[in-house]
Every structure is written in C-alpha cells, then in structure tokens.
Amino acid sequence: MDSEQVADGIHRIGRAHTNCYLVQDGRHLTLVDAGLPSMWEQTMRVIAGLGHAPEDVRALLLTHAHFDHIGFAARAQRTLRIPVWVHEMDAFLAAHPYRYKPERNRFLYPLRYPRSVPILLGMTRAGALNVRGVEGVRSYGQATELDVPGHPRPVFTPGHTDGHCALHFPDRDVVVTGDALVTLDPYTARTGPQVVARAATTHPDRALDALDALAATGAGVALPGHGEPWNDGIARAVEIARRQGIR
Questions:
Q1: Tens-digit pLDDT string for the chain (247 aa)
Q2: Per-residue 3-state assignment (H helix, E strand, C coil) for 105-126
Q3: CATH no. for residue 11?
Q4: Domain span including residue 40
Q5: Is residue 39 part of a domain?
Q6: Residues 218, 228, 187, 153, CA torsion sign
Q7: Does some domain include residue 135?
Q8: Residue 147 maps to a domain
C-alpha cells in the first residue's frame, strides 16, 4: 500500500520508517515533507490514485531540513515548479542536508541499540545517503497561517534542528509534528511518543521545551515524521514523551 488516509483529507506516504503527508484542499494539494529520494515515484502514484494531477500540488512544506525529510524536495521544486517552504533557521541546512552536528555521535548508536540497524539500513536503501540539497526556499517568517492548500499554521518547535516547525491544521484537528515528536525513533528503535535521540537532535533541552508548543495546539491527532499516527491527543503524547526523556 502506497498510502493511507490518516485524517480528513490527509494521507500518509511512508517508506523505510519515514513519513511524508499529502493534504487535499478541493482540487489542490500540499505536500508536507519530502521523505527519502525513493519516495518520489510512490508519491506520484498516490497523487494519481487520488484522482489528481501533479500540477495540482501547489506547495511543499518542510518541518525541518534533515536529509530524511528533504529527500525529493529539489526534484519536486524543479519538476512540479512549486515553492518549497521552511523556517529561515533551517534554510542553510536545506541546501546542505548533511551539515549539522547532533549532540552525540550517531554512528555509535547501532552498537548500543542493535534493533535500530534494520531501520537505518532500510533508510539507506531508500536513498538516505544520496540526498540533494534544495535552494531558493521560502521562509515561514512570522506567518500565523500559510496561504497554501490546507492553510496550516506553523508551530515553531526548535531543538531537533534550529528551525524545526510543526504544522497545525486546526480545522482537521491535526498537528504534523515532524521530528519534534515521533512514535518511532530510528536511532534506538523505541516506539511510542518521544523526542528523537541525541544522535540526531542538536539541542535536546530546547527540543523538550518545544513540546509545550505542540501541546498548546490541542490537536486530537499527531502525525509524526517517523512511526505510526497518534490518535489519543497531542497532550497525552507530550506527557509520555516527557516521561521517556531523550536517549
């Protein structure tokens, strides 16, 4: 199955434990995150399967600019001729998706958490080591609502990256949390609501503080960058994530 509907007019596209989302708004579409490079063809199939044409996609919104979230962003920008949006503090990372420094060495994590090895290998096979940067991005700036299909509200949630933003769709009772809160950590293979490990998080303390902004949305459904959708309310997810801490 290429996709599944996870909320009103929102479809999850997943591969190698990595998610991106397609948001329908009448005849137009918004993509949230660009996954891994091999997810491009899958995304095109989903668009066609929903009765849309590629030109119905009007924007690509990035929660942040790590390589596993901008996998086909440059291709989408070029082929679909759409704007790519990201917080200005992640614009450099979008152009250079491997140039970031997490708090801890990610290469030591498979030794400590061997169950993560199949996950990381799957991401590699899906193109995680061959991501092209994207330039000429648009900034979220101070916008309280974006003028794109679905009209999401950016929620500044820094810590995982300097410019991480969740995207709140109030009329659908949904928040796309990106990697500010996930239900599967690729670096530890732990499941359930949590903040991504220090192997991929730049400022862990800020990442924990950013959970307050997620909780403030009051959304009933949380759609993470990795793992299954969470349907028991963002407040409950944040409570669990705080208790779990960061590995």
A1: 688 999 999 999 999 999 999 999 999 999 999 999 999 999 999 999 999 999 999 999 999 999 999 999 999 999 999 999 999 999 999 999 998 877 677 778 988 999 999 999 999 999 999 999 999 999 998 889 999 999 999 999 999 999 999 999 999 999 999 999 999 999 999 999 999 999 999 999 999 999 999 999 999 999 999 999 999 999 999 999 999 999 9
A2: CHHHHHHHCHHHHHHHHHHHHC
A3: 3.60.15.10
A4: 3-98+106-142+152-244
A5: yes
A6: negative
A7: yes
A8: no
